[in-house]
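User: Hi! I'm a student and our assignment asks us to look at how structure tokens line up with a sequence. Could you show me two examples?

Assistant: Happy to help. In each example below, the sequence comes first and the structure tokens follow. Example one:
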Amino acid sequence: MSLLKRGPFIGANLALDDDDDQSGMGVEFIWMTPEQTVDEALKAYPGRLVLKLGLLPIGMCAEGTGDPYFLDLRGDFNEDPPLVRVPHDFAGGGDSYPLDKIEKISDHLSEFLRLSKIEDG
């Protein structure tokens, strides 16, 4: 939680090559401020839907898709959770989000941070 509140990545534009992204699509996202994290989790979709599943928003797309990025806190909680992308296209209208549409980026946040590059925003 301290990384989310006052971490060195807030506002940083992080990129991951297609080959290092488990979804195979590549990543370019901006690390959210604490205020943006709360807004996505409580007011926006898909954040409102997937927060109930145990996903915590941390990043917004820097490529224009609008798909936010989340820490996956489901299952056994640990200090190094997976990073996932949640496409907003599947968040329309209902009270749930299809789990099979959640895209795993990295098995561990530390792995993502190790492989990613900080780019000029």
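Example two works the same way, sequence first and then tokens:
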Amino acid sequence: MRLKPYFLPALVALLLVVTSCTSLGQSANAQLSDAQFEAKVLEIIRKNPQVILDSVQAYQRSQAQKEEQARDKVLAQIRQEPRLLLRNAPVTGSTSQKIILAEFSDFECPYCAKAHEVVKEFMAKNGNDVTLVYKHFPLKEIHAQAEPAALASWAAFQQGKFWEYHNALFEQQSKLGEAFYVELAQNLKLDIDKFNRDRKSNEAKEAIKKDFELGKSLGVRGTPSFLVNGTFFSGVPDLKSLEELIAQIKAGK
């Protein structure tokens, strides 16, 4: 049995409670090795299972509360100034930027491809009122092409062709891969040398990372996820529900 990393903060503190003062003091002074420390903790777990469980659950509740507080703070900032989402990001739709629909998405996610069709239809009808901004949230642990596709789309963005590239990635999702990224860039008449430099640059990686971290701070845990002027929801949206939400936002103004 190996200890999960997220157990350790709770167990380190608990070690002082569930062991004798004498034995712990001697162990602490001796500065236990990692292996010795883990063996000691595993022994405590075996002898005090309920105490350990209660402690871990309390720690998890505390962490969840901190994450929720941080999320609420970021959401409050977005509600006050939705345009914060537009910085250095590809946008389309209304130039008034009064209603902003932010999409956190992964080019290899099949649900994101379905959401793309809904959002595309929605923007065709509501593009005069709504500004769409795309945010990268590649789930690279489960989608091998998510990050390479995101980097390629960012490179296309540098040459003013993000949305054309974005549409092709979703609409031909089965083709994702190195050959397709280059082929698509050629079809869009991009400068291929610049395209390749840009997608492999640290700037591209940093841009994708910033979007991902922003998503995490807003509570994004999967794709697709959306934020409309501070209202968060996840999953493939329903066209009617999306239009009703926009109508409510407009009425509120």
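Here is something you could point out in your write-up. The longest strand covers residues 99-105.
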